[in-house]
Amino acid sequence: MTQNLLEKIYDHSNNGLDIIFDVCPQAVDAVANKRKFRLRSSEHTPSACVYPPKDANDCWHVKDFGMGEGEGYFSPIDLYMWDRGYTQAQFAIAVQELAEQYGVQDELKQGANKPEVIKRPALPCEIGKPVRVTYGDGFTAADLSVWGPCVKAEHLMELDWNTVATITRTSDGTTTIKKPTDTYPIYAQVCMYQDDDGNMQSFIKVYEPKNFNKSFRFSIIGHKPQHYLFGLAALRRKYEERGEVKLDEVVIVSGGSDAANCLSMGYQPVWLSSETETLQEADLKLLMKYAKRVVNIPDIDDTGMKAGRRLALSLPTIHTAWMTASDMHLLHDNRGRYRKDLKDYIQLNPHRAAMRRLISRAQCAQYWIERHDKDGNISYSISAARLNYYLALNGYYTLKDDAHKDPVYIHIDGIKVTRVMAKTITNFLFTQAQREGLDEALQNRLLRSHDLPTNSVSHLIECDNLDFNNSTPTSQRFYFRNGWVEVTGSDITRHPYSNLCDCYVWADNIVEHDYRNMPAMFTVDKNSEGQLVVAITENQPSKLFQFVINASRLYWRKVDEGHQSLTLQERNDENQCLLAKLVNIGYLLHGYKSESAAWATFCIDSTMGETEDECNGRSGKSFYLKALGQLLNTFSIEARVKSVVENRFLFDGVSEKTDLIIVDECHKALNFDYFFGRITGTFRGEAKGDHPFEIPFSKSPKFAFGTNYTIRKNDPSTMGRVWPQIFSDYYHEKTKQNDYLQTRKISDDFGCNLMGSEYPENDWQADIAFLMQCVKLYLSLPAAERKIMPPMQQVERRAERAAVGKDFEEWAEVYFAPDGGNLDREIKQDEMYANFSREITYRVSKNVFTKRLKAYCDYASHIHCLNPASITGKPKDGERILRRADGVLSYFYYVQSTEEYEAKLAERAQRGSESEEQVIIF
Fold first, then answer.
1. Interatomic CA distance for residues 795 and 607, integer angstroms
2. Inter-axis angle of helices 793-804 and 806-815, nearest 10
């Protein structure tokens, strides 16, 4: 069968030349130019040649003359195996890999794989008769190839299988005759059993391996007992043939084809009707009569794994030999599914040594060993290997975690993973021992065992391949009580947990609420000017969404208190502020990390304070971030003092589980540069009593900051790393220092604490649906257009004013008054500085004075700039003026008014020397 498949592969790969080119791309040029190529990278001079087929039955070959006499002559399959380091024993694996690569799998086709069916009116003698089966003459080579690479006719006959000639059924006056064909073989197994009266009865199991519908491959003719152990009769005969000497093993397999392959490897099989049927204790006792031990080999799909664990725990003396995905080389069967059973394993490893290795893996869940002395006393010892295996069957492992020196214990329940302590595991062991009624002496021995896990030492099986990834560049998964939800740019879909496999979720990432799909609460479309506009659905049900809307009402006082309508620009500002939040929520909830989209959310107030030290706050920034914590694993840092970054253990508790780090209540002088390297690169931290750890960028958490102050630095490096979110003062605190009419808290609007302990479930579901729709919005936007900025005018104005300072502003408003005589002329630095110094009670350096003067010139609307280029003669505004005055080299300031600047522009335009686009800015 393997050789025939190889011929098909050559037919689909240009007689193997394509295989040679895939293994050695450098051979393409060599064949085209009829020259040698380098097969081995270590050789200096190319010495390999490619030879065409000698005849129609031949294939291409490669000869490497540098390998020595009698070596280096490769057929395409030989070259493929040599390149991968395969031994001859792995020949079948190589053939299957190439078959999948070149698309020559013998796939089932409903049109081609079907039996011959004849229907005719029933004869009188046929009416009322049961189904009749007639048998063929024996097994052909084609039949044997269907069963497996090493299966022979004697193996099938030993298990009571026969080829079928016809299956005849008569019903409703019609007789239907089913016959096998060359592409649709049919087999039947005669099964004997003893009924309740002690009489021998039989039924027939029919096997149609090429049935396109997998669920109809097997059928039963006659009455089958509710519980039947197939292969038991053959096992009993083998036991009697050996003179009633026990076999070393009897192997439990998952079906008839597995059984035939198992027998072909020299091991006696038994099997039940299905994987989900339970082997009973009476069955085990009977099997132990015929064999020294019972070995179960379950399938490696989800159903098989669950059934295998269940059997291993219910009958702990059974040994289980687990196959792995690597045993199957991630290959597919003729139904396009991953290979999973013993037949697949033997097809890829068709030799008894491989089967012996598989059997040698078998372990049992009985973790104690009994010893009996000559006086009949029993003593117990604990097997560390079996104990770890028993705990693994119950879901207890250690998690590979290089960030911690002490073991990290976990419990796996399906796809759910929970971090547990060592004492949780020992308590489980003792509780189970008592529940199972284990001997008191055994329980005492377990209590004294040094093999139990501790906080510092563990021998438990380590898991290093758990996939917790829940996002891709275009999708995000969330987990709820009633299923998991996948969000893409086009859809939000809830799935049952039974549909989720090959990935895991931390238990604390499962939201303790149900997800309910709801109509869109908002839509986002482009207007005629190409701007994105948010349209809010009438009567949208989410209180969280309404909070976000309110926190984006930049001009609420004009409407609510002044009873005025907003201008078009003001409406656009509020729309932009809301849109930025909706997309930002989606960004923070999307777990995928991209180097080109690594931004820290920066929540700031829109309202201006009088000075750099004054702030408003109470606008809902903290709640905005904490609300996302209902769906994310967050780590919070309170940064009220700027020295918080001096704590070397600041990130103690951050791990790959962490989705978002919230740095809240940030001090005005907090060093944000401390965080920026962790935003865009590898995350580094240190835990108390542990060594420093690193989290790669792709698995590191995102950052969000909440501050009542402005962003002090607005250089490109800073602004490229932050995504500002502006919060209006709709929610505020009334104090003696402000002019608010009342205090307004979030709970005042909604009559409850949003997402609080008494929050109704239907409100939770509405808020969750809103958050899912934000993720959908974010993913629907092109990657380059996702960072939607809010209107920054008020914030930038606030930052400019803060940079000036209250004292400097009060002085400058007088000193640079339009009629004060200090605009549009040169003034010595010392003179201006001395004037300012007389007005304040503290000392300010000249450097600080100059910085504040520049900031004031940027802030004041009646001032164009400091030191215009028309005065300095430099290429740009703002350059220093340094010249001699009274024989002394001195600095001067020239503060140009907007009035003078515009007058000079008008004068220049009037002269017509240059167009307005070419005007040199004075």
1. 8
2. 90
